[in-house]
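Project standup — Tuesday

K.O.: blocked on the structure for the chain from last sprint. Re-posting the sequence here as requested.
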Amino acid sequence: MEIITGRLQNGWFKQDPPANISVGDTPLDKCRMALEKLFIPSIYTNGIPAFKRLSEAYVYLTGDSDISGCFNPHKVSKDLRSCQDFHSGTFSSALENALNVFMTKMYRNFSFHEEILISQKRNIKDFKKIKSIQFGYFGELPDVDPEAGDYVSMAPYSDSQAEYTISQKGAVIWVTRYMIVDDNIGIIQDMTKRLARAARRTHAKYVWDFFIKNALCPDGTAWFTSAHGNLSNAALDISPLVTAIKALANMTEAGPSAEKIGLDLATFNWNLVVPINMWDTAVKKNQCESVFTSNDLTTKDPNPCQKLFGVNNERIIPCPFITNSTQWGVIRDREDVPIVEMSYLNGHEEPDLFTSAGPAREGLYTFGNDKLGYKIRHEYGGALVDYKGGYCSITP
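H.V.: unblocked you, prediction finished:
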């Protein structure tokens, strides 16, 4: 059974529920979980069934059987009324919780593969400037003769530093009384799906722009330059692919090591990034068994790149954000070298949803102007921290 993250009033509960703890043991918590299950039937609710309809959840939490927008606590069960945080905004709060859980699931499902560039994630607590420090590598261990002398200190390693800040992104969506009267949960689900997709696409564009727009490294130079040895103007083919792979393998560790980073074909986990209209060419280059070595089309050599980017081409990434039809590149495994560092406020990698416009907590109404506003907010920032993890080619 699929277990996903949800958000209750008293905090977050994570993916694997403890076997000896019952989640949602108050009447109000059970209502929240029943509403979650209405949106996501597969969610774990510790045996609590879903509401059958959205209007049923509304009436149950407000006592407003006519869905007129007037809070009527006297028609609500005593157990529910006895909850300390039960009030006219309880339904909007419970719906906020359900939409948060549903949006988180959808956000994770919409993958634009920007994660291949993110080698480090940080949990940041404020909006101050963030310093990303990348340390160099030690050289070889020196020979030691303890009887002749003490161990010597390793040569100090160098470091590079980038600075960036977190920015805020967000908007408001509206759930209307009309949607609840008509039980239009499908409309609310579709609206939330599209909101999650927009948030994921925005995040993905932010990350992919480091590659597409040739971002600056900490030293102020562009990611892809001839001086870095990772820029080409060759069209996608077997020979240029081999050149790209060799160039990345020959990159050296930051000082004082200066040793080649290399490559391990047995654990090769690199990605070939192409614009959408080039995906078929990329697949052909990845799957073909041999390649002609000269223009006479008589001599063939084995293709050294055959299935190097996945048996089923799973590491060929057709990036929808690349607008230059000739731009392609190779991104090596993010575990090999640092590429992009991303920071998220309070560690929230997914966006949050909050009630932005709704009834007063102690008021007599369950809506504000016959609608409830929900604000999505996503706060993150990042920086390119090293050029050695990528190779790019743009044909003139």
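K.O.: great, moving the ticket to review. The radius of gyration is 27 Å. Residues 112-141+158-396 form a domain with the phage-related protein like fold fold (CATH 3.90.1690).
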